[in-house]
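Narrative of activities, Objective 1.

The group set out to show that a structural description can be obtained from nothing but a protein's sequence at a throughput compatible with the screening campaign. Below is one input-output pair from the validation batch, recorded exactly as produced.
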Amino acid sequence: MLTAEVLIFAPIDCSFTYAISDALRGTVQVGSLVNIIVGKSKKMGLVVALNEKNPAALSYTLKPILSTVYDIPITDATLIKLYFWIAKYYLCDLFSVIDAAIPSVIRKNIPFKLVSYLQLTPDSGIVIDEKKLPKQYKAWQFLQQNPFIAKSKFLEKFSRNILEALSRKNVIYETFQRLERIVYGASNLLKKHNENVILTLEQAQIVASIRQSLQGKTFQVYLLHGVTGSGKTEVYIDLICHVLKEGGSVLYLLPELALTAQVVEKLRSRFDGLSVLVWHSGLSDGERRDTWQGALNETSTVIVGARSAIFLPINNLQLIIVDEEHESAYKQSEHPRYHGRDVAIYRAKLQNAVCLLGSATPSIESYFNTKFKNYKLEILSKRIDSHQLPLVHVVDMRYEKNSNIFSRLLIKKMEERLEKKEQIILFLNRRGYATTVLCRCCDFIAICPHCSIPLTYHRTKNLLICHFCAHQEASHFKCPKCGAQEILYNGVGTQRVEQVVGELFPQAHAARIDSDIMGKKYEFIHILSDFRKGKTDILLGTQMIAKGLDFPNVTLVGLLNANGSLNQQDFRANERTFQLLVQVAGRSGRGEIPGEVIIQTHIPGNEIIFLSKSADYVEFFTGELKMRKMFHYPPYRHIINVNLSGENLELVKLFSKDFAQHLVKLFVDEPAEIRGPMVSPLEKLQNRYRYTILIFVQSVGKISEKLQSFRNRLTIPSGIYLSFDVDALDFL
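Output recorded for this entry:
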């Protein structure tokens, strides 16, 4: 008897065995979505293995699989191995992994979008009398001139009654075709070009090196470290061309949705006729379904997407590109907390593919692996066409008494660039209008009632909003505590910058990009398209504009609060600040005109500010690695962040202490260090009090089974939520 091991789409962390009937033999395969009965309920599951079993050896009767959801498997054995590895390494349950890997839109099996077309019935012999039926005759003539036309187009000219009359007479018949949705089909972010690009000597040498691994079909991780504007994308494109010629497929991962359209257009313009597939959360259900189906059907393709694209079922995958590999956006913040870059590396290993990591400011871990592990380092040391890196000015804002937003130097430089019809990018990593709302007369600060953080004032909505739980409330005209009308809107966000830019430069056209804008589908594409065409003079925004964007007419970049990220209580604060400053500065001077960068800070003597000015990554890495080694931080050890939360503060506190004591006993014979419990930096989130325990280990793989087994045996009090974040990037 043929049986199937099925993972159920329900919070159950094991597979169940089901019988496969003769009618479904050959249809049910590894990777098939199936309908099954669990208890008395109908559920959906994923087949992860097939086995032959002797019915006589079973002490019970197996339930049968009812049916398959699709005619073909929607994933494959390699990806199923990946699911199990993620569950083991990231200390999460299998259900959460398959729930993230196979989105609900695929499980819904929504139908493809069909378009109705009208055609004349061939050889019908029917002739419409022009005098008796003039309207039908006119429609009949129109169809003779347009023998295959969309039904919607026909109904723009003629009534539905005429359509029905012609159908009854068998003059026309209706057919349906699947609508091919082309994501970013008309975004026009780039000037179209199909010419062959001649690689620089550095680029050509790197391509030749990576091609050797591609041709040998051997797993290898490369780190492409290239200064901003050095042409990393051209290296990607040349390698993509090679893979496509060999009949293989490429997965191109990006950290920000805002970068996707630009990359897709560049690939389409260089590979005429290539159907580049797109995958990210901003697509409609239908678009996501089309991409998944396209990945299943295409034998050789290119897919561009966000971190979750790593789960797409791609045929003959030979190359995975992880662009801007240092970005924290690759780390999933919700369960399962996987890192898209590291999962990409493991998938490449499973498929004997090449994984190419690219960045101007690599993560400490990746660069470390090129020195002490088996990653191969490739370097692009110069900008293409001998373009110079921008001239960087550091402004001490402690002496800018008239403004806490724009320095005198930045205003002067903006005036000069605008007069020359050149473009400007302004960066501030805080959205909203004011970051805190407080009373001048008492100690009142507007705090989120559900989280232990101040509310941010959003001027466009005239609301106070929590950026963690999305709580909203009306803005205050007087203090709710003392009644004084002395409310102060303190701190600066992107909305405030937008207002001040309008006041200082009324003749200039400015546009803003932040997560408030990104909520409007494709609005950011229109903004970037206008900026590319020169309709917009000043682009301001948060980290969404800090990397990857390429606008040749941008000659000035202003970083309005360069030391903001240095104030974080996190050992990665230096690394994040250096990466952010270098990446933002790299948007300037990418064309023929030399660029400038203004870094505004209250701590101009800070070493990280100094190193970012010269973009000296090697010196930064050397100094940072010494600090990491001294304190045994990553990359010398892994950190597992254990978060415990609940609505009862005392219960959370007591359980955290008890849990930490158990961990010390559990790892008494292991090279592990337990720190905590301690109150989380963000003490309260969505009405839940939070404590943190940090586990420092040399190898996650060696302790993951022991930790997972301990967790499964543990009795967790009602109302307490426990989660693990392996290789944590965020300790809030």
